Amino acid sequence: MPVLPTETGIRAYNDHAGGCLMVVCMRMLKQRSLVSACILAGLLVLLPALFEAVAGGVHIVIDTGKRNLQVLQGERVIATFNDIAIGRYGKTYFKMRGDNKTPLGNFRIGWIGKESRYHRFLGLTYPDMDAADRALVEGRIDEAQWQEIRRAVQAGKTPPQHTPLGGYIGIHGVGSGDVDVHREYNWTNGCVALTNAQIDLLAEWARIGTPVEIR
Fold first, then answer.
1. Model's pTM, two decimal places?
2. Beta 58-63 vs 68-73: how paired, if at all?
3. 166 conformational bin, left if phi > 0, alpha if psi -120 to 50, beta if neither
4. Using one digit for the tens of pLDDT, what is the confidence trace for 136-159?
5. Is residue 191 packed enough to be buried (19+ CB in 10 Å), middle (13-18) or exposed (0-12)?
């Protein structure tokens, strides 16, 4: 079982952080100065990054060898989820569409689906530029597909999910699946699977932009 603070404590922490930022913004609006307006505009643009900084640099590390997922704040482990499942044919740095393997690398959470056949879905920003660069050199994608991935990455968007490298990789639950089978076998099409209870707990830390390392 993961070791973590109570859900109430987590929500209170997040509410406090968001409340502090809101107070700053309201004070700037009341001053009605040009300088304050410019600063406020900058704050709004940087809002996602600010919330990530306030959260204390939380990131996720998935160890496919140990079959666990850890949530870290800096170097401190704040939660560990054991008995995860990955792609039924293992892991790879050279993922291709339909190979049922989990890609290794460094990604971020690109989108969050609260309604899924797998209970919850935290979509990852795969393929990243490392995967795209390797694939271009090896002839697994063409120049146009590489450019499409590059433009998305540079714009901070989720890369295209329809290239030969595959897509729609994420962290999800088991949905209505058999938890005992989940604990014994790697069964996914390339995603990382937790139990429904584990993904619900993980969702307390997961935000758009949260770094995720799969190794």
1. 0.74
2. antiparallel
3. left
4. 999 999 999 999 999 999 999 999
5. buried
